[in-house]
Amino acid sequence: MNIRNSLRAGASTTAFAIAALTLPSVAFAQDADEPDAQQAETDADDEDDNVIIVSGFRASLESAVSEKRDNDVILESVTAEDIGRLPDASIGESIARLPGVTSQRLNGRANVISIRGLGPDFSQTILNGREQTSTGDSRSVEFDQYPSEIVNQVVVYKTPAASLVGQGLVGTIDIRTIRPLEVNESVLAIGGRVSYADLGALNAGSDDIGYRANATFVDQFADDTVGVALAVAYTNEPYQLQEFNAWGYAGNGQPGSPYVIGGNKSFVTSTGLERIGFNGTVQAELSSNLMLTVDGFYSNFSDEQFKRGIELPLGFGGGFDVDPFDPSTGTVDGGFATSGEFTDVRGVVRNDIFEREADLYSGGVNLAWENNDGWSAFLDFGYSRTDRNELSIESYSGTGYNGDGFDPQGDGTSPSDTIRFVSDSEGTSFDPTLDYSDPNLIVLTDPLGWGGDPDDGGRVQAGYFNNRIIDDELFQYRIGVSRELWGWVSAVHVGFNYTDRDKSLTPDEFFVQPANGAREVPIPSQFLQRSTDLGYLGLGPIVSYDVRDIIDAGVLTLSPNLSNDIPAKAYAIAEDLYTGYFQFDIERDIGAGMITGNIGVQAVYTEQESSGVAFAAGQQVDVVLGDRYWDVLPSMNLSVRLDSDWVFRLAASRQIQRARLDSLRSAIGYGLNNNPADSPTGQIPFISGGGGNPTLRPYRANAIDFNVERYFGGGSGVVALQLFYKDIENYIANGRTVFNYAGFPLPAGQPPATLVGTLDAPVNTSGGDFYGVELSTTIPFDIFTSALEGFGVTGGVGWTETKIEDFNGNIDAIPGYSEWVANGTAYYERGGFNIRGSVRYRSEFLADFSGFGGNIVRRVARPETIVDAQIGYEFEGGALDGLNIYLNGSNLTNTPFVSEFDVGDPRAVIDYQEYGRRFQAGFTYRF
């Protein structure tokens, strides 16, 4: 058997195809090999007018239906409509349209994925079957790192197989690039698009128009035994955001103490995303049974943000000398202040910069051998590395230092503001009396005295400089052997994988202060830029500048932050994973159909080590902690495939998902505790502390899935019902656990009575239940009547329920969890013309926000519905044959991203982020 054809066949039957780094074949016209093939081709040409060629989006759907039907693992997939063209503007948006899958937006981009209602911390992403490093602190991949133009297919595995290495708890996302020897033709494709953000260029130095360009080349040489695929994609696009953010809400909702906005921290954010990605693959059929595949991917990712706004102490402003809120100045409805007035307010004008640079390297070498006697084997080496530098610079200005006030009038008064407000379900709007765009009024200073009293060891903190340097490197080595058999067992697979991963964070933080000990510095006129309009909040314009220019000029200086809090953030995590697996495939004719599937077991031995610092009563010491443990993961996937196009599936498995890497940090602060009620042994004094937990074990669950699928329309349509249940035996939540401080330096002072103390950190808990149901379909309307040729719908809806207990036995909110997710696309595609509209919905969920210092802050986000649409035309024949033009519209209803304060009142808004609509016009041309 020719190895290329054999590997293709394996891709549709077992997860071994992932190990061999092969993809399902792209559907092309089959070459005729009989003597009268030429005449047959001539006859077909005579009937061209009666032949409808399925391509584009319809072909992508048919490929996804075929992948779902033929694979024994429960999965969903999306395939490129053509070389270099996924169905959506980004890979994240394409994945978010799959049944049971959704996304969270970052600056309007779908960059993290939730599967079956659970967030990115519960799934794993691989590239061409290999594990990947991440650009964030967790293990989850941010999908805007990967250009959609270089992706050929994405497969989301909802159940594991023993031979699937790197699997997640709720799913595994496999991003696949082109295999050139599977294309069977020479291809040169180019593309470009222009994008427009309808909010406009909100900040000076930003744009509202961007562009993308890409090119892909595929060819075969040496009698089709050598194939080359090269792809490059460049992106330079702006994203705009108008945000309202509240510190929180003061009061308790009772008479005389209504809930009232505690403070405002709102920004206009302009993001410039620049990314260039390269991908290359070389395949060589060294002999009829030996295939070499070498591939590499590189992405340089730059995300620069201008964040300009005002921070206002309001209901929480007692410590900032803001006059207490008087309910008589406004209106109170149901224990909530919907309007009112604050006096003696001193705002902080913010001109912040956020720069994120990341380089992602990934690639590998695969050697696959297949003999004619049914034996096959492979060797695979994979490498992934991410270098990330994340810099945020906060800059503060106001009317004067710590309420003293800059005194332009010379009368000794302190300029403060009287601000009226109106709060509703879209946030709070304001009516100030000061002009925050007046450079004669606003100066560089520490308006609220955040740096403490300079006369008492403090400083004038006119900003903060926070640089986070992250290095993540992964080596993966894999070997596998397979043997085709007969009878019930059609094949046996045995393999071993070793993964070596190291990830570290180095913080580098400084205070920003006025030069020469000054408390207030005027903003140099040469650095003033076009004022930023906060009119959407009623605050009007504010002064604008680039703080980097002012620091470079020496007007502001950097002073190192020597607090113990800084090294406590650092970590270095080393993981060594040893995985062995055994899997046998099943294939049996039962008369009315067939039974297929796989049964196997995966055994994983983990060595994890965390290096960092601990603080014994404030004294820094280096510590190295870790753990070693086994996980045995049996799995079964069985499918009953009836000749009537019904498929019944049953899957059972034990699944794991490793903890966030930053949760494993060993940085711990600890000291003596003399409270006997807190002592785990009753002895005092004992040691108590807080920080990370280097001994964390993974999330663990026992899972069962049952699917009923009905295929129709010649295999182009499907209706599928999916039921699933997970018994989560081991969960990770924040809590207090018993911890042995043996090996740590003792705190200063009286020796503790015991080294067994407590640690406040992420801990393993008993878990709970997670279950749900999904209904999905793809229906081409021509199954009803030929008059509807080209029309169709695809989509799905999923419901999930969780009962997960936290450390104290209470029901815990799972990050990223949505009870309901749904999406649907209606389309028409025929004669070169195509149009489609898409809707995706998710119910409320616990969303991740980036807090101070890069820390993750989680808040409950409102339900959201996103509407997108596309219209295009592909020329078929003539001088423009191969040209496709299109127009995309994203977030057409301008749906905001909203989170709320947990008091049960929708008017208690914490975040209200409006991204606006985005439009893209572009083309692809395939030579």
What does this structure look like?
The protein has 927 residues and is mostly beta strands. The protein has a single domain (3-394, 470-508, 564-926), classed as TonB-dependent receptor, beta-barrel domain (Maltoporin, Chain A). Helix content is 6%, strand content 56%. It has a 32-stranded mixed β-sheet that branches. A hairpin with a 2-residue loop joins strand 13 (263-287) and strand 14. It is globular, with a radius of gyration of 30 Å. The model is unreliable at 1-52 and 405-412 (pLDDT under 50).
Radius of gyration: 30 Å
**Approximately what portion of the residues adopt beta-strand conformation?**
over 45%
Alpha plus pi helix count: 7
The coarse overall form would be globular
How helix-rich are the residues, as a percent range? under 10%
CATH superfamily: TonB-dependent receptor, beta-barrel domain
Subcellular location: Cell outer membrane
GO cellular component, one term: cell outer membrane
InterPro entries: Beta-barrel_TonB_sf, Plug_dom, Plug_dom_sf, TonB_rcpt_bac
Protein name: TonB-dependent receptor
